[in-house]
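Format notes (please read before filing issues)

Several people have asked whether sequences and structure tokens are stored in separate files. They are not. Every record keeps both together, in the order shown below: the sequence lines, then the token lines. Line labels are part of the format and must not be stripped during preprocessing.
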Amino acid sequence: MQRRHGAGDSGGHDAEQRRRIAVEAARLISEQGIRDYALAKRKAAERLGIVTDNALPKNAEIDEALREHQRLFDGGDQPLRLRRYREAAREALLFFARFDPRLVGAVLDGSADRHSAICLHLFCDEAESVARFLDEFAIPYQTGERTLRQSRQIERACPVFTFSADDIPVDVTVLLVAWQRQAPLDRSGEKPMQRASLAALDALLAGAT
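Then the structure lines:
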């Protein structure tokens, strides 16, 4: 039976509820490949019978629970998979060198699972240049759009190209050249997104050997 919790509940109880939702959301993300954290939270809360928005965890809590889930249930395969994805990401950075690419997302932060894509930011004021580049190499792709925030007040809809390379999905977001100076805000909206150049990825790979 569902319970509705009011404002009078203790902080400890709210923290426990947030933790339960974070753990369930992490499981859904890892096992079902859900990439929309807001959707994962809602589905987790529904499965647990929690109907108050006050108990929803922050994205950072989801990330922490996701790493814990991977350590517990995917500890044997995940490091090898992460290494493979990072090596493939290196090839992708080389391939898109003319667009001064940066690696972002789960492959960079180490939380990549079997559903993850290699996520890149390319810098170009005309997305058509990226489309022509992919066409030049006869790479079939799909297009889309996502909204990124440069600050809490400034956001922009950015073109997205997705394709597969050696059975690994690649997700490319095209940003204006002016955005090279400052990374968009991360999922939590509290700090700039972590991103890495080819040199930084090489250092990461060397440190993991």
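For reference, the curators noted about this record: Residues 11-73 form one domain. The chain has seven helices and six strands.
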